[in-house]
Amino acid sequence: METPQSRVTRSKRSAMERSSHSTKRRTPRNSSPPIPSINDRLAFLRPSRELLEYYRKKIAEFDEEHEDLVKRLDKYKTTYEEQHKLQWEMRQREEEIKELQKALSDMQVYLFQEREHVLRLYAENDRLKIRELEDRKKIQHLIALVGPEAGETTYFYKEPPHKVTIRQRAAQHGDSQQCGNIKSSKTGAPRVKSKSARVGSPTTPEKYQKDNQTLVLQVEALQAQLEEQARLAKEQVDTLLEDRRIHVEEAHVQLERDKDKIKNLTDKSVIPQREFSAQRKKSMQFHCRYICCWDLYYAMGRGGSHQPKPYLAQLRHQLCS
């Protein structure tokens, strides 16, 4: 049974033969025969109802295929926009994580600085305590040399009073006598040695024992400071090593991620180029067939009197050439 396509092919072939015979009769032998146009070829066609229905179905199929392609493109566009949005949000989160890590490192540095300051305060406190102990020992030594006067009592405060009151007393006979002795010593009279000078500094083992206690306290304070400094230095080194390990791991992960991204982009750039070339070829063939079908449909439907629109003819010439 003869199909519509075979009918079209046979009708085209007969039209071309008739047009070629007519041009051969009209043109002289020296000039080459001109190629008949598509409209001239379509003018000789006498399509049947089945052929028109066939091309009508073909055009409907092409329209449905075109709409399907447009929907797919819109779907791909939406997916690409969502993926781009997710990538942008992930990049922002990575920047926030980097800023937080930097702030954490700064806080660790400030913490170590404050701990060093606290250790310096502890050392100063120990030094003041040892000095206070030495001052008390000196006061006890001076009291032991001079001896307390009758009716006098010495009290030691752990903390100094809020107010200090200094009472002045009138000059007594003993004070005037001491002043006279000082004046007489200045004029050349024999000096009177004080009681403390007569007694002299003690060289008993008790003094060495007190000095040993002070030295022991100083050594203990220095040992405590040294232990705190060693502990602080060890913590600083551990923190720096941990930061270095974290940075190395992050750099390694980022490097692997960049390598995977470069590889994926390279693969994606090669595959679309091939697909684009194939799809471009198919699209050109599709548009060429689509336009030819429309021209054939209108020409056959109107008995060959239809003239194709200029833009369709230009587009057909660009695609089919």
From TrEMBL:
Residues 174-187 have a biased composition (Polar residues). InterPro entries: CCDC77. Keywords: Coiled coil. Residues 1-39, 171-208 are annotated as: Disordered. It comes from the Eukaryota. This is Coiled-coil domain-containing protein 77-like protein. Residues 52-110, 212-268 form a coiled coil. The keyword Coiled coil applies.
